[in-house]
Each structure stands twice: as structure tokens, then as C-alpha cells.
Amino acid sequence: MRRTRLISDEYRTFGIPFRFENPDEWQGYSKFSPHPFYRTSNQEYGRYKPMIHTMPTVFRPQCHAFTDILRIGRDHHHRTFNTSTTNLPPIWSSSGTLPMSIGRENYFRRPQHRSNK
User: InterPro entries under this entry (predicted)?
Assistant: First the structure.
């Protein structure tokens, strides 16, 4: 049975977790293949598994003390994904479709419905 190559076989490593020590165990590469005409350079580069020579040789975990304090200390009430850039009320055009230009002169206010008694 063929043994997979480890990073420590080629380089001197310092406390690397197993998931970084053995890049051949990584899964999930090259599952979806778009049409070659629409493939970007990022998709081309990202579909290959990492090689031994591109993996880090030192693992330096970061301290999570600051985020642990924030997580315990308070609850975040604002959980929405806000993409609004203005505070304008919803508006529509008379033709039912929005014009290409964003200027306010191209928009029409929604008509007010009055009840006749």
C-alpha cells in the first residue's frame, strides 16, 4: 500500500495539525466544472488540491480572547443584512418598470388612494 507524502517528509515543520500535514486528505476540489468559456482564473487555480510545497510549515493559532468576551458579554439584536444606501420610501414608475438612471426626476411617487364617502 502506498503511503501518502506528508509535509514533514519534505520540510521541517513545527506543530502542524494533521489537516495541514496531509493535504492529500482534503476533499471537495473540482466537483463543479463550469463551461470552459466562462471559467475564471480563480476557478482554474482553486480546483486543484494544495501541494506539499504550497502548505504552511508553521501553525500559529490566534488568540480568541477578544471575541470570546464579546460573545459572552452581549447579544447582538441587529441581525439583518442591510444593503440600503438611502432612506427613500419605496417608489415606482408609471410604466411598472424602473428607469435605468437613478435620478429622482425619473421616478413617480406612488399615488395615494383616497376613499370617497
Answer: PIRC1/2
Could you give the C-alpha distances from 60 to 14, 53, 71, in angstroms and in order?
9, 18, 23
Nearest residue to 23 (alpha-carbon basis) of 2, 59, 48: 48
Kindly report the CA angle at 74 between 70 and 77, in degrees rounded to 5? 115
What is the spatial distance between Cα 52 and Cα 93, in angstroms, rounded to a whole number?
A: 58
pLDDT at 85 over 70: no
Spatial distance between the Cα atoms of 27 and 25, rounded to a whole number of angstroms? 6
* Contact residues for 7 (Cβ-Cβ < 8 A; gap 6+): 13, 16, 20, 21, 22, 23, 52, 55, 57
* Conformational region of residue 100, where left means phi above 0, alpha means psi within -120 to 50, and beta covers everything else: alpha
Residue 112: what residue type?
A: Q
